[in-house]
Task: structure prediction
Amino acid sequence: MQYFTDALKKYADFDGRATRTQFWMFFLFYIIFYVVLKIVTQLIGVGSVLPEFFILALLIPTLSINARRLHDTGRSGWWQLLGLIPIIGAIVLLVFYVTESQGDNQYGPRPTPA
Result:
C-alpha cells in the first residue's frame, strides 16, 4: 500500500526513476481498487460511473509512474506512446516494464530498493 500512496504523492513527477517493485505494487493496488469499485457499483446498480472516474482520477499518476519506470530502464517516458499500437505496443511495453534496472543513467542514480 505504501508504494501506491508514494506514487500518488509524486502525482505529476515525471522525473527520476521507479523500481520494478514500486511499479508493479502500484499496479497491483490499482487493479484491486478498480475491481472492488466495479463490484460495488454492480451490486448497488449505479452503473459504471465510479470505476471510470477512478481511472480518470489516476491517469496522471499512472502516466508518471510509467515514465519513471521507463527511465529506470534507460528509456524516455515518451516510449509510453507505443501503447497506442494495438497488441504489439502493449507487448513491447510489458517487456520494457519487466526489464531489470540499469545502473546510474541520464535519469539519475539507481534507486535503492525499499
The chain is about 60% helix and 0% strand.
